[in-house]
Every structure is written in structure tokens, then in C-alpha cells.
Amino acid sequence: MGMPKFRDIVRIRRANLDGAEKATYALTGIKGVGIRLASAIVERAGIDKETRLGFLSDSEVRKTNDVLENPAENNTPSWLFNRQRDRHSGEDLHLMGPDLDLQIKSDIDLMKRMDSWKGLRHSYGLKVRGQKTRTTGRKRRAVGVRRRQAIGRLKKERSRGS
Questions:
Q1: Which of 101, 115, 144, 154 lies 20 to 30 Å from 19, alpha-carbon distance?
Q2: Could you count the other beta carbons within 10 Å of the beta carbon of residue 53?
Q3: What does the pLDDT look like over 27-56, one tens digit per residue?
Q4: Tens digit of pLDDT for each residue in 66-81?
Q5: Cα-flanking dihedrals φ and ψ of residue 17, to 5°?
Q6: Longest alpha-carbon distance in the chain
Q7: CA 18/CA 21 separation, integer angstroms
Q8: The overall pTM is greater than 0.70
Q9: In angstroms, rounded to a whole number, what is the distance separating the alpha carbons of residues 94 and 84?
Q10: β-strand 9-12 against 15-18: which pairing, if any?
């Protein structure tokens, strides 16, 4: 029978993954999947962790995709999930891709509406997790002269000088 054909790009969960990487590390290319969850998924799918993703057969890719779709049904420990005891459903969920982005945005909007401390910090664009702000976190704030005014002033000075 021989080796399965190598694929440079493998599509899993609406993400294009590099076929040259080992299966565990390639799965971390999906937003919301870290190295520990990826290794658990590879183990649950029955794939050797040393196998390159490009050498997986179609059935192994489907099995990996099925395990990713429903990690709770495949005996994946709930402490690996990124949404344990969800606020709305009460279940242990694991969100990936655009679903994760949307949920994070809605959580931040909820904190802002509640006027919680974290919500206020988010709305002011400050550090949220208790970091010091005396010397860091100045990237988004303009300190000193605004750029447009400075450029306009330079042009005026040049025109007067000539």
C-alpha cells in the first residue's frame, strides 16, 4: 500500500495548517487551540504524535476534525477548555476561530455595560490585569506635541525662511 501522499496544506476547522509540522504543533495554528489541547486531540484521534500533518490520511484528518468539533464527547478533560461553566448554558465549552473572537468581544462589552473595574479599564484603554502603569503602557497615548501640528509648523517655518 505504501505511504499516504504528502499534502503541504491541510484544512482543519476552517484553518489552513502547515503539513510539514508535526500534527500536535500544526494544530496550534487554529485560534483557540494551544499545545496541551492539541496533544490531547492527537491522542484522542489515535494519531502518532511524531507524524507530520501532511502525511495524515483523509480518515485521520476527519477523525481529528470530529474530535475538535466535540472535545467534551471524546473524554477530553474539561480543564483544557477555554470556557468552563459557560455563563449562558452552564456547560463546559471550547470555542475556536471566529466564535472565540466574538465571545471575547461580547464578554468585554458586558463588562463595560456592568461598569465593572475590568470594563472601565477596557473602555479607557488602560491595562486590565493589575499591571503597573507608571512607566509602561504608554504606546497608545500621545505625549507631547501632536504630529500634524508639528509638520504644519515645520512647513510654515520653511516657507518663511526662503
A1: 101
A2: 28
A3: 888 888 889 988 888 888 888 888 888 888
A4: 888 887 777 778 888 8
A5: -110, 150
A6: 83
A7: 6
A8: no
A9: 8
A10: antiparallel
Q: Is 13 in contact with 97 (CB distance < 8 Å)?
A: yes
Comparing CA positions, the residue from 51, 46, 54 lying closest to residue 11 is 54
Cell numbers placing 70: 466535540
Locate CATH 1.10.8.50 in the chain.
Answer: 9-80
| Residues contacting residue 66 through CB under 8 Å, at least 6 positions apart | 45, 74
CATH architecture of the domain covering 9-80: Orthogonal Bundle (1.10)
Beta-strand ranges (E) seen in the chain are 9-12, 15-18
Cα(61)–Cα(14) distance, rounded to whole angstroms? 13
Coil, strand, or helix at residue 139? coil
Asked if 30 contacts 15 with a C-beta cutoff of 8 angstroms, the reply is yes
